[in-house]
Amino acid sequence: IMFNLAAEGVFGYSSAEVLGQSIDILIPAQFQDQHRTDYARFVAARVGMRRAMAPGREVQGRHKDGTEFAVEVSLSRQFVGGQQVGTAVIRDVSTRIGEEKQRLLVANDFKMHCLAGSPRFQGLMSRLSTAHGSKRIFANCSSPSLRRILPKTAR
Questions:
Q1: Distance (Å, rounded) from C-alpha 153 to C-alpha 133?
Q2: What is the rounded CA–CA span in Å between residue 48 and residue 43?
Q3: Is 97:70 a contact under the CB 8 Å cutoff?
Q4: How far is CA 74 from each of CA 4, 9, 102, rounded to the nearest angstrom?
Q5: CA distances (Å), 62 to each of 33, 41, 76, 94, 118, in order?
Q6: 126 and 152 in contact (C-beta within 8 Å)?
Q7: Which residues have C-beta within 8 Å of that of residue 108, sequence separation ≥ 6?
Q8: How many CB atoms lie within 10 A of CB 144?
Q9: Which of 34, 100, 106, 119 is 20 to 30 A from 48 in CA distance terms?
Q10: 122-150 tens-digit pLDDT
């Protein structure tokens, strides 16, 4: 493993601490077996390539302090003098993922607020609020927009 200053900042290890270690120190335990499988498949391909690691699947890194965080990994491989040389560029995307989740929550809250004025939605809420057990269904509602539009009997 070669470890640059950016990697030191992301993972919290110095280059000296990582050199000679297994890559497993940077991968949460529950993902290590899958990583080995993916890596073996990557190596077996025996062609030069560049691709994202595990497209469509969440990839996690592990900080020196044990904290797990979302990462994106771009892999590339070249053959230099018959030797395989691989590079992984790892980016901490936990902030971006958190912001995307927050945007989805806000968008969903906005949708609920917009729906509140819809006669069809009002009718549905009215039927739900009078149905047996509706109080229990909405008891833990945390959406401010939804709480504003629910009849008090449904909360």
A1: 11
A2: 10
A3: yes
A4: 16, 18, 25
A5: 15, 23, 21, 12, 47
A6: no
A7: 143
A8: 10
A9: 34
A10: 666 666 666 544 444 454 455 555 555 55
DSSP string, 53-100: SSTTS-EEEE-TTS-EEEEEEEEEEEEETTEEEEEEEEEE-HHHHHHH
- Do residues 90 and 54 lie in contact, with contact meaning Cβ atoms separated by under 8 Å? no
If DSSP codes are grouped into helix, strand and coil, which group holds residue 44? Answer: helix
Q: Which two tokens stand for residue 30?
A: 């529950």
Q: What is the pLDDT of residues 13-66, one digit of tens each?
A: 999 999 889 889 999 999 899 888 888 887 777 655 655 565 656 789 999 999
Of 39, 34, 36, 1, the C-alpha closest to 17 is: 1
Contacts of 74 (CB under 8 A, 6+ apart): 50, 51, 52, 53, 88, 89
CA distance 119 to 61: 48
Confirm whether pTM is higher than 0.70: no
